C-alpha cells in the first residue's frame, strides 16, 4: 500500500481587520495654452481605491501568521490631474488562506463564504469610487465649471477566518486508543505517539494512496473525553474539524479487561457527538476495535456479538492492530469503496 501524508499544526481561527483603498479625488483644472484663449476645463477623474481579496492556496495550511499580522489595507486611488488625466487605480491586496476556510463577518457572525476550492477568490472589502473631474461638468451653459467630486471611502470590515479540515474520513476516540498509530501506519504522516493522554494536541491531515485510482484524505483529532461537547479537554474546537467528513472512524482500545467498561467508552463518544451536533451524530460511524494483538479470538467474537446486539447492526465493526498493521489494508480499501457511494 503506497501512501503519503503530511501533518498540519496550525491556528484555526483568527480575526482580521481590513481597510480597502479610498477613491482618488477629481481634479479642477483649466487648459492654459498659447493661442488657445478659451481652453476650457480639463480636470481628470480620480482612480478607484484598491480592493481586498481572500484567495485560497493549497500551499497554505494554517492561519497562524495572521495572529501577528491582522491588519490589512489596500492602496488609495490617485487624484485626477490636468489634461484630463485620470488618477491611477489603487493596487488590490490579496490575503492567502488555506483551502477549507470559512469566512464570516465578525460584527454579526453572518457566514460570507465557505472556501473549499483551490485558487478561489472572494472580495471582502470594496475600494472607494473615484471622484469626477471638472471637465465632466462642462455644459453649453456652464463653460468653466469649478465643480468636482471627491473619492469615496474604502470599505472597512472585521472578518473572522475559521479553518475547518477538508477530509473525507475522520478519526475520533478516547485518549490512548491508538488513533495516531493508525494514522502513522496508513500514511506517511508522523504524529507524535506516546503512552500518555493527549499526545495529539493539534488536528492532522494525511493522504492515503492505495493505488493510482484509490485515495482519500483522513483527519485525526486529539482524544475526546467526557464533556468535550461542553468544552472540557480540547473541546469544541476539535470536534468541528469532523464536520466535512463523510465517514467517522471511532477507534476503540479492545484490550480492556472489562467489557462493560469498553461499552461505556463507546457510548461516551457517541453521546458527545450527539450533544455537539446532530449533523455530526448522524454521519456514518464505523467502530474500529484496535489492539487485537493483545486479546484472543474469543474476546473479539464476544465483543462483535455484543455490539451488534446492542446497536442492532447500526455500526460497521472492524478489528485491527494498528501497531502490527493487521487489517489496515482491508479496512482502507473498504473505506475507499464506501466513499464512492457518496
Automatic annotation (TrEMBL):
GO terms for molecular function: GTP binding; GTPase activity; magnesium ion binding; ribosome binding. Belongs to the TRAFAC class OBG-HflX-like GTPase superfamily. OBG GTPase family. GTP binds at residues 173-180, 198-202, 220-223, 290-293, 321-323. PROSITE patterns: G_OBG, GTP1_OBG, OBG. NCBIfam families: Obg_CgtA, PRK12297.1, PRK12299.1. Mg(2+) binds at residues 180, 200. This is GTPase Obg. Keywords: Cytoplasm, GTP-binding, Hydrolase, Magnesium, Metal-binding, Nucleotide-binding.
